Amino acid sequence: MLVQDSPDALLEKYGPKCTLNEATLDDVFLHLCKMPLSQRTTPRKFTTSSRSPEVKMEREGDRNVEILSFKNIRDESVNIRSELQTCKLDQKLIPSTFTATKNYCSQVKALTVRTSIIYLRFISLPLIQLVLILINMLIALYAFGFDPKGLTLGAIIDNGQIHCDTNLGHPISSGRNVTRPEIDYTCRLLNIIEKLGVNWLGFYFADIPLAIFQGGLILTMIWWDRGEQIKGSWALIGLIFYLARVAVLSLYFVLGSLNVNVKDTTILTISVVMVYVYASDTIWPIEAVVWWYRPFCHCLPLTVTIRVLRSVMTKGWGITHPTVFFGLICFPLIITGISTMVSFVVERRNKK
């Protein structure tokens, strides 16, 4: 099929009348890769008298090419939409544990090859993903209060004490001109907010440049890969990314108020990032993971967020859509509010 025409032309040619007209070409090939060997079939050669009327004949130059549409596959267990229902009804189709494990390994192998090909074609894609993972780890370390430069953004650790010059607020309040280059503007902001008793609030403001950088990388990667397919509002997409980031930061603050050390913070951050990558359908489709992990994937809030975000991008859902409003706007705000109150209570208790 790929030798005959481009992927877009194939979807346009065979899509309107087949049962996979709502799927992308990646979904078609992913489905074919996931098929067990026992269910895979090759196109049969038909004679003139027994040729099915559903087989299409096309003339390309001096050769006649037989093309079988996906809708002509007679095996109901191969159909994407009825595969799960058929397996549930027919007990004979349920494989043993060893066979199921072998099938999962073959699926992961096929997906690994597919991902490797994508990485080889687009070298910048794995580099961008690596940068995003490192930035997430740096964000968690900052939020927990471990700053290599000595500036504890978030001011959660060490009983809420900020490692900046405590006399910095006096020249600011007195109106004197402070021009010392070694004085950081973030320290000034954190010292002012420290008097209000909500030290973690300053990190939300100090985190805005890093949030813009990370969100810009993600949106650039999406625009570069699927920019022509985006139907939703870019402003809404950016708002969704920022609200999800603020919700994650608020959860980090709650954990940071428990005085977690650097080693545990790093291990926990790596675990959270890897669970996020593994369960968010970013690299592997959820259908390809092991059976005991699927319920966790579907119940994970981040997974639901990303799936709804796809609808915002590809279907043009707006902020007034109930799923978008309650799932991507209200839910992160509720998580942020609850985590903020918990961290505020714990921080005030640590100061006593």
Any chance you could write out the topology, listing elements then pairs?
Blueprint: H1 7-14, H2 25-34, E1 56-60, E2 63-67, H3 83-89, H4 97-121, H5 124-144, H6 169-174, H7 185-194, H8 201-206, H9 208-226, H10 234-256, H11 262-279, H12 294-299, H13 301-315, H14 322-351
Antiparallel strand pairs: 1-2
Helix pairs in contact: 5-9, 5-10, 5-11, 9-10, 10-13, 10-14, 13-14
The poorly predicted ranges are: 43-90, 147-163, 166-185
Gyration radius, rounded: 27 Å
> Roughly what fraction of the amino acids lie in strands?
under 5%
What does the average pLDDT come to?
61
- In DSSP terms (H or I, runs of 4 or more residues), the helix count works out at 14
Keywords: Membrane, Transmembrane, Transmembrane helix
Domain ABC-2 type transporter transmembrane: 200-313
GO molecular function: ABC-type transporter activity
Subcellular location: Membrane
Structure description:
The protein is 58% helix and 3% strand. About 24% of the residues have low confidence. The longest helix is centred in the C-terminal third of the chain and has 30 residues. With 352 residues, the chain is an all-alpha fold. It starts with 6 loop residues before the first helix and ends with a helix.
Short description:
With 352 residues, this protein is mainly α. The protein has helices spanning 7-14, 25-34, 83-89, 97-121, 124-144, 169-174, 185-194, 201-206, 208-226, 234-256, 262-279, 294-299, 301-315, 322-351, and strands at residues 56-60, 63-67.
